[in-house]
Amino acid sequence: MIFALADDGQTFSGRFDTGEYWNGRRVDPAAATARLISRDGSPREALQSIVASVTDYLVGGDVEALRFA
After folding, report:
1. Which of 36, 40, 62, 69 could form a disulfide with 56 if both were Cys (CB 3.0 to 4.6 A apart)?
2. What contacts 21, CB < 8 A, 6 or more positions away?
3. Residues 32, 24 contacting (CB under 8 angstroms)
4. What stretches of 23-67 show up as alpha helix (H) in DSSP?
5. pLDDT in tens, 27-65
């Protein structure tokens, strides 16, 4: 397993021995506790919450919108 933190101190890249590559960036610890599914009273509400989160990411680039609890 080899990983390296970039010079900016915010992003990293690396790979596991199996050849799987990972890239990522630091997130605000407060944002890391947010849930992707914010409304889960019914399957419909859960799906609406997921679609809204993915839209926030695709349109606005909000990576934290995709984080699971």
Report:
1. 62
2. 13, 14, 15
3. no
4. 29-32, 43-60
5. 777 665 555 566 667 888 878 888 888 888 888 777 777
